[in-house]
Amino acid sequence: MALFKYRAKNKKGQTIEGLIEAPDKKMAAETLLNRDLFLVYLREKKKSSFWEKFRLFSKVKTKDIVLFARQLSVMISATVPVVRSLRILAKQTKNPSFRKIIIEIADDVDGGEKLSDSLAKYPHIFNNFFVSMVKTGETTGQLDSALAYLADQKERDYELKSKIKGMTVYPIFVITALIIVGIIAMVFVLPNLLEVVKETKAELPLATKILIWTSDTLVHWGWVFLLIIIALIIFLVYYNKTKEGKYRLDLFKLKMPILGGLFQRIYLVRVTRSMATLVDGGVPLVYALAVISEVVGNEVYRNLLLRAKKRVEDGHLLSDVFLESKVVPAMLSQTIYIGEESGRLSEVLKKISAFYSREIERTLNTLISLMEPIVIVILGIGVGIMVAAIILPMYNLASSM
Questions:
Q1: What is the pLDDT of residue 398?
Q2: Based on the structure, what is the number of domains in the chain?
Q3: Is there a domain that residue 293 lies in?
Q4: Positive or negative, the Cα torsion across 151, 155, 161, 165?
Q5: pLDDT digits 0-9 by tens, 239-297
Q6: What CA–CA distance (Å, rounded) separates 161 from 158?
Q7: Contact 331, 351 (CB under 8 A)
Q8: Which end of the chain is more exposed for a tag (fewer CB within 10 A), N or C?
């Protein structure tokens, strides 16, 4: 016996979905017809192997989503039917998890479901903003333009994340390597060298005393520090999953020296760019604020947007809420106020987004150029202190002989 997924209409014209067990597809169709149901679509629901189930949890990369939106936009603009476009994309997609999802979306659309409704079933891949933009494109008859914009936005987000990763990988790698080498040296190499220094019973420099204390502590109590670090990481992971913890950690991000300003601009670009697109597409501001609050990626701004949504529903201006907030620059709030008063909110939001995007670009370029010399200085200081702490007492001992 096989299991089949179906969508059908009853005599009243109501759509019914479900599963039916039958020896084959023909028998399943006959059984449904005997129940006075008129088939829209019918397909076998295959049982997944353990390996296939495991692969379904594989991550769909941003590049996959960008390519999906871009190619679907091109095919729709070339008047290729949506279902056929989706099936072509499914054949070309290398990610097995994403391919299966695209096939299911194609089956849903083939069965009469809207593309946006089908995409909404996969929130871990297509967020609320993505779905809302597709829905706007379907309503206005400009689905190809909506998909092209989504591809552009996802591409910009991907480039920004890649730049930030590129900026942090080098220093993190060097500093981590320095810490690991330092710990290995202090636990396995330095104790023997420092034992010789101790035996001289001469007055040791402060740097040497600190090095001896650190080495002894790591040798005897290193496992305690390791357990504390592991416990701290576990605590932070679980704390970040709580509402209060997420809010406090996100607020800490915004208050960090140097990087805090960068994070703030990134979130503000996300808010203004998304809002401009939704408002431009005819989406009511209240609904747009609700959608953006789910995709902004920061609990502080999420709370602000939800508060703004409630105030806008009560008849207040969006700029009123932003002016009261400490995490929104006064320039942005005042510019939004001008946009609301002049009826050109989407245009103003686009200009703000472009301004902050340029600011992010400049900040990133400055940080990238400064990162290498800073890391070299830290590396030099660390190695210099360690070498001086060992060589200086030996030099003093040789001089006194």
A1: 63
A2: 3
A3: yes
A4: positive
A5: 888 888 889 999 998 998 878 888 899 899 888 988 888 888 778 888 888 888 887 88
A6: 5
A7: no
A8: C
